[in-house]
Amino acid sequence: METAVIRKRLSTFKSAKGTFHKVSNEVVMEVLRGWEAWPGNAAQYYREIGVSKTQLAVIIGKAKRLVKSGAVTESEFKEIGVSLPGAVGPGLDGLGMELRLEGERLIRFSQVDHLVDFLRKMS
What we know:
mainly alpha
């Protein structure tokens, strides 16, 4: 997400004294995702979004606690590349199975055998 948008969203939780109160989980996660994707150093990032380094540390800490506790789940699908013997093409179009778990999580298996092994290990 663009830093100008994060700065605007954060400013809605800022008091007249410059402290943050009751920052929503959504905004906290946006700050974390922006920080993870930031190509520069942390000092450039916190200046860009208009917070001090201690404020950024508190926000990042809260975001990491949310992720660790499971209160926030990843909404984006992250593809994991697996090399398979005999697989044809990078997309493996038309092959495999998909398994949708609780919370809209989706796991894709390139071969049915992998799905069966996964289900055996889960039980």
